[in-house]
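Following up on my earlier thread - several people asked me to post the actual chain instead of describing it. Fair enough. Here it is, all 363 residues.
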Amino acid sequence: MLLKRTLSLLSFAFIVSANAQDTSITPVSNNIFLEPVVKKVTAFKDTNSTAGLGEYIKVYVANLDTLVQKAKTDDKRIILFINNVPMRGIYAEYLPECDDAVIFLLSRDTVSSASWKIFYAYPMKNYSIPVKISVGLEGGKCIKSDAKPFTLILVQIGMLIGSVIGIVILLLAFYFLARYSDILRDETTNINASYSLSRSQLAFWTIIIVCSYVFIWAVTGELPHITGSTLILLAIGIGTTASASIIDSSDEKNKMTRHQNGTSGGFIMDILSDASGVNIQRFQLVVWTVVLGLFFIRSVFISLEMPQFDDTLLTLMGISNGTYVGLKIPENKSGGGGQAPTPAPPTGGGGQPATPTPAPAGS
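Reply from S.P.:
Thanks for posting it. Predicted structure:
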């Protein structure tokens, strides 16, 4: 009996000892997921919390390695978020000497342009705005940000003033050039030749595009993207001017009586009129050019980017120019060496030329 009790006590002691050993060798797991959090945002070149297009910003992220590992696992890139808006095309760049921060270049191209439109709607109302900066995986949500608000510079004030002064000087120079030279006039031997509609339209689009390009670059500090609409409008103007020049050269070669050989009746009347007066094909071309030009300028001023027009609108502009070129061909009638025909002398009785009555002396 005693032996049986002794064996029972030894068995109980062994079980308790085994359980104690198991508890001691099973550690509590400390493998807790560390969430990445944005802690601070500064300009890359200094510690200021302001930056604009064309500049780098530095984003400090706690537990950055967790986000980097997830990006590698999901085969995605880390992008910038501004006010929770994903800035597509603006990717993180890593610093070898810094394992808790990434940098981003604030750039606006064809990929990120749609995202920037949210912030560049009427930029002249707010030259700079406070924004919340964060990061995240492309196609996903941004991570938590505890960073202080960052100031995003939309308009460079000094460059804005400089660009306006430069544009005014350019417009004044072009005005005097157009007024006192033949840059916009028809090719004739007259000193005061009439103004050419096709040349005026080409100059119109050239001035608008150049001024818009300089204005956007000066204000944002970044060279703007040239859109397809910009190239098409300039190409239409060049094509119209070339076609009109070919028609005029043909008229000269065929000794046509050209209305362009007359003297100027003023800029507006010259571009709207042919030999028979103001005509509809010239009028509609002028109207559509001015309307589309105003749309172009408004778009540049509002969004600070070169506009992209609808294909239908560009087709309409092409038809308008084509109509003008097509109806320009019969504008000039055939004659003798560009001189008006000499009227036949009046006849008297019997079909004989009438003898002119001499005018009184002194009349």
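The longest strand covers residues 98-105. That should answer part of your original question.
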